[in-house]
Design brief:
Length: 386
């Protein structure tokens, strides 16, 4: 069976390969601890589960949903954005559900890119930022995240030739994989760039609710002018332990969302209404306490891992957001993949090579904090013993 030429352009998905390696080792009887995939290990919060259970049992949710989403879902998202970020959204035109952020980000490529167009993509970054453009015949152009700039790209390095062809720009704060928070002035610079270059700015807002040390993540749409040039993809996955529910929303520029809806109505049949009702429950103020409690767990795990790595001589900075630790590989290894392979073979611990997230991730590795404390402690001890 010959795959399409477009499929041949992209490598196997990073996490699919990690899952294959884990299964292979465990089949051989090896006790593997995975710190590679950012999938919360604790359940979805009880109020959300209860709302979802009730919605699944209601026959009114069993028919085709609207691609545009339930009215109460869109209103709940708008109310949350005003309460949480101070951003006013029109639920009729500026909010739409998506079947997870990954699906949403990929479909934006289908909606806005033609062959020969450019999508600007944070590097290192979520693999869909680069795989999506390739699958629609466009070109991803990497924007290296500079450590000295707080892991932000230097937008002044983008050439006029690239900007002439650019139609989308993908960026993400708090940032996966680096854990960085948005540097002062960066969102404003993105708005300026988008205004001057007919560019749709796409902020992947997957980790705004997972922050530490008193840091409160902003929405890109709170930046003056952002709604005129951009959209934001808000995900329930990480902040509400809802990765399997596939619940997200795209919010912001009304014209962009109208085009996205036009595409989606030809691709899928919308987000299951029971999931939308669970998503509504997640955004209620009373669930904020669950979010804070979960963040306290992650903060404790973050401190445990960072302290152990520091004791082992790794120069690591404690992140203020996300569920990841981003650290340089030790000396003596050719690249990040070689170090991660060494850790897997010698310590039976899975960590992610930074180079898998883009060229600028080379020389780093990523640890996910979504592992129970006892297993995380065991994994850290194994790493330290190396």
């Amino acid at each position: 069976m010959r795959p399409s030429s477009r499929l041949e352009k992209i490598p196997p998905y990073l996490f699919a390969e990690l899952e294959r390696k884990i299964a292979e080792k465990r089949a051989a009887g090896i006790d593997v601890i995975s710190l590679g995939i950012g999938d919360p290990d604790t359940p979805t919060y009880p109020a959300i589960v209860a709302a979802g259970q009730a919605a699944v049992a209601d026959p009114a949710t069993h028919q085709y949903p609207s691609n545009r989403g339930r009215q109460d879902f869109r209103e709940a998202v708008a109310a949350f954005y005003e309460r949480r970020f101070g951003v006013v959204l029109d639920p009729e035109t500026e909010v739409m559900p998506a079947i997870g952020a990954k699906e949403c980000i990929f479909n934006l490529n289908l909606a806005f890119l033609d062959p020969g167009d450019v999508a600007l993509a944070s590097d290192p970054g979520y693999p869909v930022y680069t795989g999506g453009p390739l699958l629609v015949g466009a070109e991803p152009v990497l924007m290296p995240l500079e450590p000295e700039l707080g892991f932000a790209p230097d937008l002044d390095r983008l050439t006029p030739e690239v900007l002439e062809r650019a139609r989308l720009m993908f960026f993400n704060y708090p940032n996966n994989p680096t854990g960085a928070v948005v540097p002062d002035g960066f969102f404003e610079r993105v708005v300026e760039l988008a205004q001057g270059n007919d560019l749709l700015a796409v902020h992947d807002n997957a980790y705004s609710e997972t922050t530490y040390d008193g840091y409160v993540a902003p929405s890109f749409l709170a930046t003056p002018g952002a709604k005129e040039v951009g959209v934001e993809v808000f995900s329930w996955s990480k902040g509400y332990n809802m990765t399997g529910w596939r619940c997200a929303a795209i919010v912001g520029n009304a014209d962009a969302i109208a085009q996205f809806w036009r595409l989606k109505s030809n691709i899928d049949s919308g987000l299951f209404e029971a999931v939308q009702l669970a998503g509504i429950a997640a955004l209620r103020p009373e669930v904020d306490a669950d979010v804070r409690a979960m963040n306290a767990v992650y903060a404790r795990r973050r401190d445990l891992v960072c302290d152990a790595l520091a004791q082992a001589g790794v120069n690591v900075t404690k992140p203020k957001g996300t569920i990841y630790i981003w650290a340089p590989i030790p000396d003596g290894f050719a690249n990040s993949a070689a170090y991660c392979e060494h850790v897997l073979e010698q310590a039976a611990v899975v960590i992610s090579p930074g180079g898998a997230y883009g060229r600028s991730g080379e020389g780093f590795f990523r640890i996910s904090l979504t592992t129970p404390d006892d297993r995380l402690i065991e994994a850290v001890e194994r790493l330290r013993s190396l």
